[in-house]
């Protein structure tokens, strides 16, 4: 498959991604410095992949696929095996590569969840900027009413990205979300982004609060379907149209546990993977691809507004194993 020519901005991003994944990639790359392809190489690779939090299922899949590729290509050079692993990993991750589509529904309502410390509110700010660069008008909903600092933080992002925000002191998170979606419809906004309180999936009462937000948002009624597809039903136009989970790339297998728990509770449509800079656990995306293949819309490798980019399976694989 021919590689797309990267723009200077994208090339700069890929360089950041390589730097961010260096800890993960270095431990895997040392496996291919030997002189022969033998059982020891595969055993070392298995250990390196598991240490990178690729997970047992994804590791087994990658090893089997890699051995097949080595056999089919009659490769004898261990260094060349790394290139085949890039192909194998790209193939595994490709189902996660899917763009976030805005525009069919007006407004497109996006609900964002995540545990405390995953970078959820910051990611919403970055996502707002990303949408604004596509000329989409955004309204923010500060439905994390449990934490005053969260409203303030979201307010800062709203100011920096010059968008409106719906918030209230204390109050019911679901009511804030309902008001924001109603306002988004009335004001003709393209997107309504709903921030929610950070929580652990083991905090069942808080997970129930998330489910309540989703149910109450649906009560605002169908959004305008710009596509006017004959096959569309009223249910498909009910908000939220996207339910995103923000996960910290440094948490490895714990991130996979979060994906499963939040997906079971809310029916996730996409992921944002943050804090991939300096992680030794970058293999977790392979684990997600194998065990709960929910699209990864964006990945992040820094704190700046522009440090959130669309996920590309080949770029990620090459950066990881560069």
UniProtKB/TrEMBL annotation:
One Pfam family linked to the record: SRP54_N
Class of the enzyme per the UniProt entry, highest EC level: hydrolase
Localisation per UniProt entry: Cell membrane; Cytoplasm
Membrane topology listed for this record: Peripheral membrane protein
Keywords, in A-Z order: Cell membrane, Cytoplasm, GTP-binding, Hydrolase, Membrane, Nucleotide-binding, Receptor
Catalytic activity: GTP + H2O = GDP + phosphate + H(+)
Domain SRP54-type proteins GTP-binding intervals: 295-308
Chief localization: membrane
Enzyme Commission number, as recorded: 3.6.5.4
NCBIfam families, per database record: ftsY
UniProt family annotation: Belongs to the GTP-binding SRP family. FtsY subfamily.
Protein name: Signal recognition particle receptor FtsY
The organism of origin for this protein: Rhodoferax lithotrophicus
Gene behind the chain: ftsY
């Amino acid at each position: 498959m021919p590689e797309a020519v990267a723009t200077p901005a994208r090339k700069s991003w890929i360089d950041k991604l390589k730097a961010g994944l260096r800890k993960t990639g270095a431990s895997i790359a040392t496996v291919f410095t030997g002189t022969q392809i033998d059982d020891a190489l595969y055993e070392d690779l298995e250990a390196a992949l598991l240490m990178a939090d690729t997970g047992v299922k994804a590791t087994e899949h990658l090893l089997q696929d890699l051995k097949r590729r080595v056999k089919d290509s009659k490769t004898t050079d261990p260094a060349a095996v790394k290139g085949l692993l890039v192909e194998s990993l790209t193939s595994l991750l490709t189902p996660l590569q899917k763009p976030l589509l805005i525009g069919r529904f007006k407004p497109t309502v996006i609900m964002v969840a995540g545990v405390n410390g995953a970078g959820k509110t910051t990611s919403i700010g970055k996502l707002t900027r990303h949408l604004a660069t596509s000329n989409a008008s955004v309204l923010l909903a500060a439905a994390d009413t449990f934490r005053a600092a969260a409203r303030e933080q979201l307010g800062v992002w709203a100011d920096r990205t010059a968008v409106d925000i719906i918030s209230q002191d204390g109050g019911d998170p679901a009511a804030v979300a309902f008001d924001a979606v109603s306002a988004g419809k009335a004001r003709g906004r393209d997107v309504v982004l709903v921030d929610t309180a950070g929580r652990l999936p083991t905090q069942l009462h808080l997970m129930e609060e998330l489910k309540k937000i989703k149910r109450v948002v649906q009560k605002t009624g169908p959004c305008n379907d710009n596509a006017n597809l004959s096959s569309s039903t009223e249910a498909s136009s009910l908000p939220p149209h996207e339910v995103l989970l923000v996960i910290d790339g440094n948490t490895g297998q714990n991130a996979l546990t979060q994906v499963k728990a939040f997906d079971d509770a809310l029916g996730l449509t996409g992921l944002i993977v943050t804090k991939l800079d300096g992680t030794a656990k970058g293999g977790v995306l392979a684990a997600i691809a194998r065990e709960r293949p929910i699209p990864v819309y964006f990945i992040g490798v820094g704190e700046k507004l522009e440090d959130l980019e669309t996920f590309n399976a080949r770029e990620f694989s090459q950066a990881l194993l560069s």
